[in-house]
Amino acid sequence: MLPTGKQVLCVVDEIVGADFVKVRCVDGVTRICRIPGKFRRRVWFSTGDVVLVEPWDFQQTKGDIVHKYEKDEIRKLISMNLITKEFIEGGE
User: Cα-flanking dihedrals φ and ψ of residue 4, to 5°?
Assistant: First the structure.
C-alpha cells in the first residue's frame, strides 16, 4: 500500500496509551496518531514500526493510522526511495 493523497509515511516513536501513538513523519512533523478500531487486538504496534498515516484536515499534528508495513513491504519502500533506512533507525 503506497501513500496516496495526503497520506504520509511515519515511524512509531512512542506508545502513548489509550490507543494513541507518537509518530515521526517523513514530512518532518511529529504527530499523535489514533489506532482505529479495525487494528485493535489484531495488529500490535511497537516503537520502530513503519506506518502509513492520514493527517486530520482540521489538526495537522494529529492523524489516523491507515496501514502497518511488514518487513518485505519496508524493503520495497526503501528500494523505491520513499523512505530511507536511516530515517527508520532514528537518524536524519
Answer: -130, 150
